[in-house]
UniProtKB/TrEMBL annotation:
InterPro entries: Cation/H_exchanger_TM, Na+/solute_symporter_sf. This is Cation:proton antiporter. Belongs to the monovalent cation:proton antiporter 2 (CPA2) transporter (TC 2.A.37) family. The keyword Ribosomal protein does not apply. Pfam families: Na_H_Exchanger. It comes from Streptacidiphilus alkalitolerans.
Amino acid sequence: MGFATLAVISLAALLGPLLALPRRWALPVVLGELVAGVLLGPTALGYLDARNPTFSFLADIGFALIMFVAGAHVPVRDASLRAGLRTGTLRAVAVGVLAAGAGLAVARLFGTGHAALYAVLMASSSAALVLPIVDSLGLDGGPVLRMLPQVAVADTACIVALPLVIDPDHAARAALGALAVVGCAVLLFFVLRRLERGGYQRRLHQLSERRSFALELRISLVLLFALAALAVRTHVSIMLAGFSFGLVVAAVGEPRRLAKQLFALTEGFLGPLFFLWLGASLDLRELAHHSSFVLLGLVLGLGAVAVHAAMRATGQPVAIGTLAAAQLGVPVAAATLGSQLGLLAPGEAAALMLGALVTIAAATAAGSVLARGAGSPAANAEPFA
């Protein structure tokens, strides 16, 4: 892992913005980065080795930052979001109930015994994907605002549940680890809120801006990496550490200067590096040797879209439900943890990621449909909500 490799990674990461450039396509930036990683990984050219410890560690930092930014962008202080919290929570629960039945059926069909894992995957949503799509396409209106808490609730619940269902033999250990991380995040919320209300945060901000110290960024990274270290030590995904701390920052109030600094650090380098690493970690050739897992991936992806789109019965537009089905962080963590612990069959990790790609494609198409129909009266209608 040297500067030449970093140069190639940085160049390849430009494929994301290039594919996202035509607005009529409405493609998320991460899609191009994933494709670039697949092409540079063992599936095609074999240039990038995801097993390289330096590459993997940088990717872990990028993943933690991505989830932190995703959590920080959840508008928890928005009154309109809180107003839709009840509806969003009920829909997330309903999707979870449907996903439980679907997960059991899929596990029996393929004989893997991973019913609980599949249920969590199909019930999950990804704030890291949905929020950028909503922002980049300028989507708004009542249905979108009611979808955001649904995504946040589903994302948080599935992040917490994943360590419990992927390794049931150590569920108690994972539960204690998740409680430790969440508990520390809650403690940080009260501490940071007290500092903010006491005026300390404002004085720190003024000093940092006046002296160009970037103190807020430095302190945020200290706290994020400390939570990530706790997550690793307690065998919990760093996804939980990043997302929970992001929610804390969103609840307290993220300074604009810090938001810009985090955006530059994450979106400029470490975020694209993570998605390239993720693409490079997938050897899609395994699917050719285990053809049944191709079908498993398609079923998982289409199943996730189906259980979310079923919320049409509650008055949610199908396109909104399909957009909410987008998943990334949970399948990534499932594939990573499952492979590291030897809990997945050969090719199954790639199947999980194939399912995620199906949901990303469906969400991208749904976002495009919503963007084109944003001006129609039906776009803002949700009669049963």
